[in-house]
Amino acid sequence: xxxxxxxxxxxxxxxxxxxxxxxxxxxxxxxxxxxxxxxxxxxxxxxxxxxxxxxxxxxxxxxxxxxxxxxxxxxxx
Length: 77
Fold this sequence. Notes:
Tad2-like_dom; alpha+beta; 3-stranded antiparallel β-sheet; 2 helices; ligase
């Protein structure tokens, strides 16, 4: 697999693919971007979710380290 920057992986996330950082050494399986939708008739803005091995999905926001990292990879999940 090819390591990428967050800037390089972002178009793939916007296209519905999943990604992970190889520098994460915990239970993180992948992050994904949930597209804009509707909730109770109002617009729901896009947001990131993270899937871990020991939990359900959780909201995720990239840290400065995540944005500057060069170890992002696409995953097939």
